[in-house]
Amino acid sequence: GYQPCDPQIICNRVNHVQTCLEELEELAAKRRKELEDSRQLWTFFQEMEEAEAWIREKEKILAAKSCGRDLSSVLTLTNKHKTMLGELGNRRALLHQTMKKGEKILAKKSFSSVGIQEKMREVCLRWKKLEEITGLHQQRLEDALNFFQFSAETDDLVAWLQDIYRIVSSDDFGHDDYSSQALLRKHRAVVDEVEKHRAAVLALRKQLALLAPDHRQGVDIQIRVVEVEQLYGEVAEVAVLRTQWLQDALAVYRMFSEVHACEVWVDEKEQWLEKMEVPEELDEVEVVQHRFESLDQEMNSVMGRILDVNQVVQQLVDGGHPSSDEVRSCQDHLNSRWNRVVELVESKKSQLSSVLKIQNFLLEC
């Protein structure tokens, strides 16, 4: 009793199934798209919430942060702030990506735009405020860093000036020509260093003017600058005085050395003149006369040295040198010895002249 089915019926059934399948696929695709849009929407809100939470956290940190109490703490806080700036840059890039996602969602118009726009506006405002707070805190750190660096440099300058003051106010002027020369060389090197620091002292006022108002208007820092300027002035003044004192000491020691050399010569010639007996023979008289000619040349040289000594002594006395009495006494003693030698020479020359006259008279006879 089998009867074949009408092919048209089969075709209709197949077409019907195909149509149902296409409708099902269309519904599935629509559902997938709606779910995908929903996922993007809630991902967007989640990322925005995370951004807000991160902003709130950083706001609390910045509100609680101080600017440090000294240079070390400011440097530590500055390094931490640089790290936070790096985090801020990374978070800015993430927020920019999230904002782009929100714009894409708005462009699709799949959901109400009111909540999305409100959230974007709110987060943007908070982010802008955070960047302003960050910039202000960075400026405060820079101001504090400049202030503490200025204070540290000023303290170092004060310590250096105090050490130099102890050096230039020393009462050691040496004990002889060599030691005084060595001290004078060292002192000139110190004077050069003092002169090199003049620019740093003069620049303190300009550096102070560059500090933030709340720092440069402080009474302590202004007093500190005045103290540095006054201390530098004292150091420079004492350095000039020590230069003069060392030069005077060197002049005294050189004068004593020159006096000693002249007196050695005077002693030698004085002893020779006192022991010398004027010969009676003509040949011996001529020999002695040649010696006196050489002696005249030596005396001219020594006379020049004694005149130099007298000039140095006069300069020291006129300058009010503390050893003026001793120097004057030494000068008088040398001049007295020199006059004694001159008298002896004149006396011996007179005797020689008398002997020569007698000898010449005898020869003529």
From TrEMBL:
Keyword Repeat among record annotations: yes
UniProt source species: Agelaius phoeniceus (Red-winged blackbird)
Tree of life domain: Eukaryota
Alphabetically ordered keywords of this record: Actin-binding, Repeat
Gene Ontology molecular-function annotations: actin binding
Gene3D superfamilies hit by this protein: 1.20.58.60
Pfam families in the cross-refs: Spectrin
Protein name: SPTN4 protein
InterPro entries assigned to the protein according to its UniProt record, in alphabetical order: Spectrin/alpha-actinin, Spectrin_repeat
Keyword Repeat appears in the UniProt entry: yes
